[in-house]
Amino acid sequence: MLYVVITFLFLAIVLYFLLGGADFGAGIIELFTSEKNRHRHRKTTYQAIGPVWEANHMWLIIAVVILFVGFPVIYSDMCTYLHIPLLIMLLGITARGTAFAFRSYDAIKDEKTQQFYNHIFVYSSFITPLFLGIIAGSAISRQIDLQAADFMDAYIYSWLNWFSVAVGLFTVALSGYLAAIYLTGEADDEIDARRFIKKARYMNILAVIFGGVVFIVAEIENIRLAHWIFGNPVSLIAVIAASISLLILWVLIYKGKRKIIRVFAAFQVTMILLSVGYMHYPNFIMLKGGQSLSLLTLHATSKTIDDLGWGLFIGSFLILPSLFYLYYSFQVNRD
Amino acid sequence: MNDFIAARSQMAISLGFHIVYSCIGMVMPLFMAVSHYKWIKTANPVYKNITQAWSKGVAIFFATGAVSGTILSFELGLLWPKFMEHAGPIFGMPFSLEGVAFFIEAIALGFFLYGWGRFNKWFHWATGVLVGVSGIASGILVVSANSWMNNPSGFDFVNGQYLNVDPIKAMFNGSWFSEALHMTLAAFSATGFAVAGIHALMIARNRNIQFHTKAFKIAIVFGAIAAILQPFSGDISAKNAYKTQPAKLGAMEAYYHTQPYSPLVIGGIPDTANKTVKFGIEVPGLLSFLVHDNFKETVNGLDKIPVKNQPNVTMTHLAFEIMIAIGSTMMGIGILYFIAVWKKRSWLTKKWFLNLFILSTPFGFIAVEAGWTVTEVGRQPWIIQGIMRTSEAVTPMPGIHYSFYLFTAVYFTLSIAVIFLLFRQIKMVPQLYEGGD
Ligand code: HDD
Ligand code: HEM
Ligand code: HEM
């Protein structure tokens, strides 16, 4: 059952990234959209994420619950040493979720208040994935020090380092890229679609640049990222698969196949997460001084894991078909 | 402010904020389902307008409820890491099922809010009902997690170790039923009265009478029934509290000295130093009756419990008094409503009658906050009754007061924003739903 639970944890994280991340991405590209196009952009965004954002957001909750029920020590250490970035991420989620709901449901749609919601929505869409990335980066950066005596070492440098920040920026670029690709398929007309393709291109370039920066910083900070990724076959294959799918994706875009490309983008990001996830599996958090918090040793007792596994299993029978139908009704079957 | 107090205050304010939204999230979908049903059945457009007007308001509450809930699920770890480290695997079962319930709720909500005119009308209606059902299910599940903190079970505590963990047993601990029942009723009565109060105000001001009268009726029927049942369920809770948390009961009643024909103190301000209650009215034997169902059997008081294991009596007692006062009032108003419906229909349009409901708009929510204060403050100094002290659970990170100020500011801003939006919603009813009146 432990492996079932770990699989669900990984799935929840990937799906949060693919779906929730794309929601944030929609806000990020709104930030880079010229004033005159923003209105149209918002309309497409609303159509695309309005019905599904609460559901997308649930993957995060599922991941957190799996962590604290199944791997309480890891959850507790993560919450202690990454308290500050988690806090900022939560504020970001709060600001973004409420701003999005407020701007859609405010009964009076006057220019001034709408502008205000837009600002909050756009900036928090940027901050949240940045800190999500920082948290993820910190988990593998070996800067978390359970022995630290000093406030800065324990609670600040655990996450405020170049590597984590680089991962944060990479996450932002990936989210924007995902959103641009998804929205290309949602666009109402050719002009909009072209606009999104342009955005996707920029975000793709940014992602490649920041991805490079992550590797360089990793080398400087003595995190053997390149070695890990290219040193094990699964991660290596995943990286190659991601690159091939990136090529196919751009070929398809220029052939005008705009619905199917999202599958490739999603596949690509999944492969990136898989390669990173696999390279340090089963360690969830890597600590200063060489030790790690491993999913295979720091789990709850087997009774709890069994019950949790069954709960997730039964839950997914209820959730997945209805979730699929939700996407089908509002996205595939829109017109 | 020291870090420990800051952490407790931050937890309290986050939960106090969230609970308002969760009550609304549990109950409003069912109100909407009723009005939606009436629309499908009668084809009267007023019902459609009510459903849509409510659903817009509810979408705002949902978003706020969802994000504040997300904050909470992290906050448990951010503020109480040592608690979660041990309690997570034991009381986590309801949380994981709750995750499933929320998920279903969020999916159903997507269908419901964005599904107007897209789906078969009964399918659309059913998704609305599902939102409500899964909301209530998740409410009950979280409360079961909380009741475990009051009445821990499903593990053996040996030499500081938590052994033989059984999450299912922990979920169905001895207090889950009384707490879940009381909380569910509270959600219905609080939301019912609040919604009814707002519509009563509009009726009193002569705005869109048809619209508001129909909306008022749906809300108050639920609210009044729940308010009438509430004290009975509260009595079950009190008896249970005596069994499992005598210190809490002692503090609720400010009952310092063990004696036969145990008196109930009504009102009054506890004086902890002298172990007396000032300005209270004592009714001999009533506490015995409430706890044991007879007037003479002795109820054990706070003197049987070491002071270091006692909660803050003043706060617990005052909060309890507020809840009781409001509970009795709401029950009375609920009964009055049914008298009006069955015997005195003329009351329904009288000014004084409407004013009664307008006045009681916030009552239920005040009682909810007070009730949770009783439950949580009354459990102190324990975070897990009898097993772990709250002070042992708190995060080692210093500077929590900054985060407390920050969250206070955030919740304050959000509350203002939601109230502002709600006003705008109500203001727009005449323009948006013109045809309905
Ligand atoms: C509309 C709200 C409302 C109203 C009118 C009442 N309550 Fe209540 N009460 C709650 C809302 C609430 C609550 C917020 O929902 C609590 C907190 C925890 C819980 O399960 O319910 C609660 C807790 C609570 C507890 C503590 C349970 C525990 O910690 O184990 C007791 C003993 C009572 N209530 C008793 C009563 C009585 C005797 C009432 C009758 C007049 C009453 N309540 C009215
Ligand atoms: C499932 C639901 C709940 C859980 C798991 C929970 C958990 C906690 C925890 C961990 C604390 C901190 C430790 C402590 O002071 O005891 C706490 C405190 C507190 N909670 Fe709850 N709680 C729940 C529901 C609520 C609700 C809905 C409210 C509010 C309306 C509430 C009000 C408070 C208050 C006032 C405190 C502070 C107590 C004090 O400082 O003395 N709780 N709760
Ligand atoms: C007695 C206390 C509580 C009750 C009755 C309650 C009930 C609810 C309900 C009915 C909802 C859905 C309605 C809405 O979104 O507005 C909700 C949302 C949520 N609650 Fe609570 N809750 C309580 C305390 C807690 C606690 C202690 C936690 C955290 C550990 C929590 C976590 C959440 C989460 C994560 C959501 C968001 C779900 C979503 O995205 O739809 N709740 N709560």
Order of secondary-structure elements of chain B: HHHHEEHHHHEEEEHHHHEEHH
Nearest-integer average pLDDT of chain B: 84
State the helical fraction of chain B: over 70%
Overall geometry of chain B comes to globular
Protein architecture, described:
The complex is a heterodimer of chains A (about 325) and B (about 425). By secondary structure, chain A is an all-alpha fold. Chain A has one domain. Chain A has helices at about 1-30, 35-50, 55-70, 70-80, 85-105, 110-140, 150-155, 160-185, 190-220, 225-230, 235-255, 260-280, 300-330, and strands at about 285, 290-295. The model of chain A has no long low-confidence stretch (mean pLDDT about 80). Chain B is mainly alpha-helical. Chain B has one domain (about 5-250, about 310-435). Chain B is about 70% helix and about 5% strand. Chain B contains 14 helices and eight strands. Chain B has helices at about 5-40, 45-80, 80-115, 120-150, 165-170, 175-205, 210-245, 245-255, 285-290, 315-340, 350-360, 365-375, 390-395, 400-430, and strands at about 155-160, 160-165, 265, 270, 275-280, 280-285, 380-385, 390. In chain B, the strands form four sheets. Chain B has a two-stranded antiparallel sheet with strand order 1-2. In chain B, a hairpin with a 2-residue loop joins β1 and β2. The longest helix of chain B has about 40 residues, at about 5-40. Chain B is globular and about 65 Å long. Chain B starts with a helix and ends in a 5-residue tail after the last helix. Chains A and B meet through α3, α4, α5, α7 and α13 of A and α2, α3 and α14 of B.
